Each structure stands twice: as structure tokens, then as C-alpha cells.
Amino acid sequence: MSAMSSNTIFLVAPLFIRDVSSQLEWSYSYQTQWPGACKTGKQQSPINIMSRQAVFDKEEGHIHGPLVLRGYRDVTVTSVNNGHTLRWDAVPDLVAPVMSGGPLSGNYTFMQFHLHWLSEHAIDGMKYPLEIHMVHMKTGLTVDEAVLRPDGLAVIGVMCEIYSKNEESEHALEEIMPAVPGLIDPQARMAEPTSIDLTRLLSPDPQSYYTYHGSLTTPLCQEAVTWIVMDKPITISDDQYQEITKADVGGRDNYRSLQPVNRVVYRSLASCSSIIAPSLIGTLFAIVHCLSSTFGAGVNKGICLIGNFKRRLFGDSVKQCAKL
């Protein structure tokens, strides 16, 4: 990425997020009154992701290889309470983290991350106490262009579960917590820039995720987002959660209600391998589970394959299983 394109991204991206929050009067308490695509859109976010209905993209028609994350270990950010969330913005004019691969076509430049409590997405009907959103914009686009394109933005969603205070549970949020006491009041000034390791905020296995096309979860809810919702949560401490949720964001919480799914949700190869049991039979059942989410005939073939496995063990002839 050239110096010019990097400057363009950072000069406009943080302003875009601030303008949306400051110019529009909206509240999480009156979501039915949100304007724009929030009312009229057909592919809105967040959604309840059902793991058994997610499509395993074994042909890589939608997920093209591994997700690539470059430059996330040393990122200079400033923090702010914008009245709706606690947000950490990338500092303009500095080298930006870039995401590519997976379901994405091209490079996406990191803009900011922010927090929602409770989580906005649900997985198999379960909500988490906190969800982190890492917002990226397609490199080379202006903000006006990005929000009008279905592939203009990409957002990583990371779930957080709470454990008692210890070194492990405090590791993920350790670098951002010093700024939180100064963010309780939305009228507080933006904090001084600080350097953090964004990889701490990512799932333990960033290659294990669900992905779908959807929208921003705040007005104007433009349907310009490729969502990458990681399926393995990070751990945070109860003390950290209590401190974060003291922040004045206009109410007790700051999450949008679940929206109709009405579209395909894909799952990565790693998300399938994560359910594999230690035994060989368990592995076969796990593979069948992933294949059956893609094709209705997968279960029958899986049963056939497992039967053949048993037949081979006892020296019997195997059956011909239908091709997927």
C-alpha cells in the first residue's frame, strides 16, 4: 500500500465513524425508530448463527484459503466514549494493519475496534457477555464508496466469556484497561495515543470462524459488511467486565436486537476441525457433521462411510457410497 493510499484511509476513516455517532440522534432503547437501512434493509446484522445450518465451504467457493492478518501486533490507537460504545481508533498517518484472504477479495485496512455488551451476535442461541468488533475498510476506497458497496467493509466479531480474576483471564484486555476509567463519561476528552497488541483481542484460533454478508449494527445500518465471527471466545476477568460496563453509553447495554438470518452463513475449515473428537470414530462423525451442513445427502453418505470403516476392520467387503 502506497503512502498516499494509507493517508487517505486514515484521514477519512476515523472521521466517518465519529460523524455517524454525533450527527444522528438514536438510542438502543428505540431501535424500531432507527433510520435508513435499519428499517428497510433485507440483510441486517446481527444474527443468530446456527452451527448445524452453516455451510462448510469445502470447495473454497466463498472462503479462499486462510485469513491473513498483517501488522496487528503493534498498533497505535486513541480511545473515546462516543456515547454509544467505547472505541479505539487507529491513529492517522501511521502504518495500518491489513486483513486479506478468507472470504475477502482484496485488502482491508483496520480502522477501529469497539465493544458491545451483551454480545450482538448469538451462536446456537447463546449470547456472550461482551463482543469486540474490529472494523476494516476495503483499501483504496473512500468511505462514501465503501458504505455503498456490498464488500466495502469487513468486521471481525470476537466473543468474550468471563472468568475469575487471574493472569490468564486478564491477558486479552490488559493493554486497553488503563484507558477505561477515563472513558466512563462520554464527555471526556479522547485519550492520548498508546500502542497495543491487537492480536490479544483475536480468538485463540483466528482461522475458525463463521462468515456472512450483513450490515453495520448502528444507524444507518448500511449493508456493506463481510462479517467474520470467530467461534472461539477469548477470556476476560469479571473485574474487567464490571469496569467496562460502568461506562455511560446511554443505557445499561449497547447491543442491537437479532435480525432475520434469511441468507447463507458459511463456516471455515478450521471451524469444522474444532469439533473433531480424539477417537477415529469421533473424527468420522465430525467430518460427516460438516459435510451434511452443506449437502442434504451428506448424512447418508457419512453413515455409509462409517459402515465401510467397520467393514474394513472385520475384513468384509465395502459398499459403494454415493458421491457428494
From TrEMBL:
Q: Which organism is it from?
A: Manduca sexta (Tobacco hawkmoth)
- Is Lyase a UniProt keyword of this protein? yes
**Which cofactors does it use?**
Zn(2+)
InterPro entries linked = CA_dom, Carbonic_anhydrase_a-class, Carbonic_anhydrase_a-class_CS
Q: Which family does it belong to?
A: Belongs to the alpha-carbonic anhydrase family.
Write down what this protein is called: Carbonic anhydrase
Look at the named UniProt entry and state the broad enzyme category this protein falls under. lyase
Signal sequence bounds: 1-22
- Which Pfam families did the record assign? Carb_anhydrase (PF00194)
Alphabetically list the UniProt keywords: Lyase, Metal-binding, Signal, Zinc
What's the Enzyme Commission number for this chain?
Answer: 4.2.1.1
Q: Which PANTHER family match?
A: CARBONIC ANHYDRASE (PTHR18952:SF265)
Note whether Membrane occurs among the keywords.
Answer: no
Sum up the protein's function in the record's words: Reversible hydration of carbon dioxide.
Source taxonomy: Eukaryota, Metazoa, Ecdysozoa, Arthropoda, Hexapoda
Give the GO molecular function terms.
carbonate dehydratase activity; zinc ion binding
Q: Which residues form the Alpha-carbonic anhydrase domain?
A: 24-269
**For this protein, what reaction is catalysed?**
hydrogencarbonate + H(+) = CO2 + H2O
